[in-house]
Amino acid sequence: xxxxxxxxxxxxxxxxxxxxxxxxxxxxxxxxxxxxxxxxxxxxxxxxxxxxxxxxxxxxxxxxxxxxxxxxxxxxxxxxxxxxxxxxxxxxxxxxxxxxxxxxxxxxxxxxxxxxxxxxxxxxxxxxxxxxxxxxxxxxxxxxxxxxxxxxxxxxxxxxxxxxxxxxxxxxxxxxxxxxxxxxxxxxxxxxxxxxxxxxxxxxxxxxxxxxxxxxxxxxxxxxxxxxxxxxxxxxxxxxxxxxx
Length: 245
Description:
There is one protein chain. By secondary structure, this protein is α+β, with helices and mostly antiparallel strands. It folds into two domains: 2-130, dinb family like domain (Four Helix Bundle (Hemerythrin (Met), subunit A)), CATH 1.20.120.450; 146-242, SCP2 sterol-binding domain (Nonspecific Lipid-transfer Protein, Chain A). It has eight helices and five strands. The protein has helices at residues 2-11, 28-48, 70-86, 103-124, 133-146, 193-198, 209-216, 233-242; strands at residues 166-171, 177-183, 186-189, 203-207, 228-231. A five-stranded mixed beta sheet has the order 3-2-1-4-5. A hairpin with a 5-residue loop joins strand 1 and strand 2 (177-183). The protein is globular and about 55 Å long. The two termini are 23 Å apart.
């Protein structure tokens, strides 16, 4: 996988004891181990074509015996994932925790899990992360589409209820405009694209697709010069306080 290769390239030569500022309390070793473990777990789900929530996340991680083996192990984890992708029809029905009940959900989820942690690694070693705008826009969409279903591991999302208040995330470098509506029974992307595009949102955040993606994942702060925010500041505070993934 391309994102894993970029992750490894960023970390190679760095001490795995290096702290990761965007993941407080983690070192690069923790980040590598987490990313590879997630890849192997998602691959197991694909291999088993799971049809119901797994009772355990225990899988054979094949962890290396020493710290010097971890980058090779991460590359092997990526190869395990690539093999699972190659033999799985993306349209295979599967259990998922999000909105799209097919194997492609796990493939897309693994891509952005790896991508975000690749940027964590790059930031930790002093590199400036770069993300293709089209890929970033898809990542913003993937995050916002699935977030309403993340309550089992993101319980604060239950606080994102309202009386129809709206938040717009608008990409400035490509077509990308997402309108979130807070309802009494929950929240989610507005399903009427034509209406959503014309509606004046209660609060708006504008930035490049890459910056919006990192903002949604808590890697950037909306107060920085990368973003233009307008409208209800308290509504934005409520969103970012409760949308941690």
